[in-house]
């Protein structure tokens, strides 16, 4: 692989992700945001299953859920997002929170400089809500990868302050 070919592939992925969100959320299903979310998440699920298959092909099987989650935080995240997850928390009862303080796909969301503190709060909230639609696909990626690795779960995401976000994984028992 040539040195510049990786950068082109990454910029293409960024463009495809942005266009997929725009197509489903703003054009096809603008009046049905839940349908757009389900469709984008389903695409992510499929991709996540395939990536998990590829990234674990030469590894021994995982023995427990925690080992799988650690793989997602370190190896899977590094392959997909070019860095490890910044923080992992658990309640030891099947809920894991993966925190990324600079989530790559949220770094391009910008907010105009507000004039007042109340405008700042409203702008930040609006940006977080707008950024939420860019988390449907990675939620699907995570759920697809975990399902492929034998961990049935539900995945949701929250944005505290752009570009930071948290992915909440609830393992189904």
Under CATH, the topology is which? Muramoyl-pentapeptide Carboxypeptidase, domain 2
The CATH class assignment is Alpha Beta
Computed over alpha carbons, the radius of gyration is 17 Å
Compute the number of structural domains: 1
Oligomeric status: single chain
Find the count of extended strands (DSSP E, 2+ residues): 4
State the fourth-level CATH superfamily: Trafficking protein particle complex subunit 3
What is the second-level CATH architecture? Answer: 2-Layer Sandwich
Number of helices: 5
Largest sheet: 4 strands, antiparallel
The average pLDDT score comes to 85
Order of helices and strands: HHHEEHHEE
Binned strand content: 5-15%
Which structural class is indicated by helix and strand composition?
alpha+beta
Helix content: 40-55%
User: Strand sequence of the main sheet, in spatial order?
Assistant: 1-2-4-3
**3D shape:** globular
Question: Which stretches are poorly predicted, pLDDT < 50 over at least 5 residues?
Answer: none
Can you walk me through this structure?
There is one protein chain. This protein has 173 residues and is of the alpha+beta class. The protein has one domain: Trafficking protein particle complex subunit 3 (Muramoyl-pentapeptide Carboxypeptidase, domain 2). Helices cover 54% and strands 14% of the residues. Strands 1-2-4-3 form a four-stranded antiparallel β-sheet. The protein is globular. The N and C termini lie far apart (43 Å). The model has no long low-confidence stretch (mean pLDDT 85). Belongs to the TRAPP small subunits family. BET3 subfamily. This is Trafficking protein particle complex subunit 6B. It comes from Selaginella moellendorffii. One of its GO terms (biological process) is endoplasmic reticulum to Golgi vesicle-mediated transport.
């Amino acid at each position: 692989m040539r040195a510049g070919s990786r950068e082109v592939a990454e910029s293409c992925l960024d463009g495809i992700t942005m266009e997929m969100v725009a197509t489903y959320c703003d054009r096809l299903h603008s009046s049905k945001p839940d349908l757009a979310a389900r469709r984008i998440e389903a695409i992510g699920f499929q991709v996540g299953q395939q990536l998990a298959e590829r990234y674990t092909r030469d590894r021994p099987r995982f023995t427990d859920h925690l080992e799988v989650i650690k793989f997602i935080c370190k190896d899977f995240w590094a392959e997909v997002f070019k860095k490890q997850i910044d923080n992992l928390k658990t309640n030891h009862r099947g809920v894991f929170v993966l925190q990324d303080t600079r989530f790559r796909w949220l770094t391009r969301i910008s907010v105009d400089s507000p004039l007042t503190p109340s405008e700042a709060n409203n702008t930040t909230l609006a940006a977080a809500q707008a950024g939420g639609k860019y988390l449907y696909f990675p939620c699907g990626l995570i759920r697809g990868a975990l399902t492929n690795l034998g961990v049935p779960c539900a995945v949701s995401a929250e944005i505290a302050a752009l570009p930071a976000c948290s992915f909440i994984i609830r393992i189904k028992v």
